[in-house]
Amino acid sequence: MEIEIQLTDRPIAETILSPGQTGAVGAWLEFRGVVRGEENGQAISALEYEAYPEMAEREIRRLLQEISARQPCRAAKVIHRTGVIPIGETAIYVGVASPHRGEALALLAEFMDRLKQDVPIWKRRGLPVEAGRVTPCAPVSSTSGRQRTARPTLKSLDEARAEILSRSPPLPAVHAPLAEALGRVLRETICAPEDLPPVDRSTRDGYAIRAGDASEMFSVVDTIHAADWKPRQLQPGEAVRVATGAALPCGGLRVVMQEHVERNGDKFRVVRREDATNIRLRGEEVHQGQPLVSAGTRLNAGAVAILATVGSVTPLVSPQLRVIHFTTGDEIVPPDQTPQPGQIRDSNSILIRSLLRNFSCEVEQGHLSEDSKRAQSEIGNRKSEIENADVLLISGGASVGEKDFTRPLLEWLGFEIVFSQINLRPGRPLIFGVKGARVAFGLPGNPLSHFVCFHFAVATALAGLTGGEPPEFLRGHLAEKMDDKPCPRETLWPAQWERHDATPRLRPLAWASSGDITCLAAANVLVRLPANQGPLKKFAGVDFLPVTGL
Length: 550
Ligand code: AMP
Ligand code: MG
Prior knowledge:
alpha+beta, 6-stranded mixed sheet, binds adenosine monophosphate, binds magnesium ion
C-alpha cells in the first residue's frame, strides 16, 4: 500500500486530492477530524495538539501497514496538524483508496480508533473561550516546527498529589512470610489473640513470696525457670526461686530481688524491703482482642517483632512492588567511568535504587538510548519485565526538548498521561501516566529534581499502591531567614530538620539549580514555599515534607 504521512503545524488545505488524482480505484474515502467548540464539557476556542513527529510518523505508518494486511487498500494519506488549531479547522485528514468502499471504511474506522491509543500525538489542552478566539496560525516553512501561543495551566502540588493518589489505588494484598514483611503495608489489623503477658511473670531474678509475708526467714521450696510452668500455692515463710520471665506459681505474690536477700542453704533472710512487686501481671500490657498493629501501618522492625510475638507469621500485607527504572540521555556514563567532555556520570540510578530501599520493592534498572527507534527496540527486549512492573520510572527526557521522548514512549507503551508538568520548582517537567493498575513517572533528569519528585510524587504513588499513608506535610519554622526571590512556581526547598527543639526547626540548604547535588546528603525535609512567596524571616512558619530514608 502506498502511504503518505505529513505532520504539520499549518492549516490543512480544503482540497487534498481531486478525484482524478486518485487513479483507478473503486473507492476514495476522505475523512476530516474538525475541532469542535467544546472539550470535556467546557467551551473552547481552540485545541492545542502536540506530537513527537518522527515517532508519530513511524507509528502511523506501522498502524496503516498492519491494518491494511486485513483490509487491503491501495493508498492512504494522513495529514495531522499540531500546535494551536482553532475550532472549525481540521486537526486530522485521512484519505484512503481501495478496490471497494468496505475496505476503506473498515481501515479508516480501525485506524482512527487506534491512532489515539498508539500514536504519540496528544491533545495538550483546550484554550478557553475567554482567551479570545485564536487567530489561525500563520503558515510556517518547517513541518516539524511547533507553534506555542500560551503556556498551559500547570497543576498545583495539591492537585497533582490528589491525582496521583486517586490514580494509584491499593494493589491486592497478599499473605507474606514474616521475614519478607519488613517495609510492606499491613492490610489487616492484628489484635492480641490472648492477654499479654499471658501469665503473671517475674521481672527479676529473685524469690517469689506471698505479697504481705513479713516472715523473718524464708524456705526455698521450689525453683521456676523461664520455661517452667509449675502452679502451686505458697504458705507464709515459703519462697520459690524464680528467673526473670518465669511464670509465677499463683496469684497474690511479690518477687524479692536476689540482691536483696542473704541466702544460707535453702533458707534466706530479706535484707532490704521495697515496695515494687517486680511482677508483670497477666494482660497488664495488652488485653486479649485489643488492636496491636493497625491496617495501613508500614511494618518496621518493631512491628514485625510484635507480629512474631502473637504468632502472625504470614500477615496480610501489600505485595512487593515491582519497579523498573530506566535512565535516558546519551551523555550518561556509569559512575565507574571517567566522563569525556559532554558526558556526565549517572547518579540517578543509585539515587532511585537507594530511595526505593525504604519500600519493599524489587528493582530492575536499565538505560534507554536517546534515539527513539533504538529506545523502542531496547524497550521491546524488556517488554515482559515492563509489562510485569507495577511502577515504571524513566529518568530524564521528560521535558519538551527535541530529544525528550519520555512522554511519547509512555504513550507508545499504552499509558494514559494524567499530567506532564506541574507548577513545581525544581521538577516542573514531571510526567505521570497510568495503564490499568500500573503507574509510570517521567522524572526530570537533574538529580535535585529527581530527589524532590521522588519524595513528592513517586512516594505518594507507592503509598497509594501499597495502601499506606501518603507522605504528609507538617508544620515547622525556619531556623534562618531565606532570601528567595518570588517564583511563580511552588517550591520544595531541601532543608535540614534540626531535632533539638520542640517545634521542628528547619535550616534551608544552599542550592541554585536543579542540577545541584551537594545539598542532598544533608536534606531530610523539603520546605514548601507557596508560589510568589519571596523572602522569609527567621522563625517564619512553613509547611514541610519529611523525606524517608537512610
Ligand atoms: P533531561 O531531563 O534529560 O533534560 O536531563 C536534565 C539534566 O539532568 C541533564 O543535564 C542531564 O545530563 C542530567 N541527567 C539526566 N540523567 C541523569 C542521570 N542519570 N544522572 C545524573 N544526571 C542526569
Ligand atoms: Mg536527557
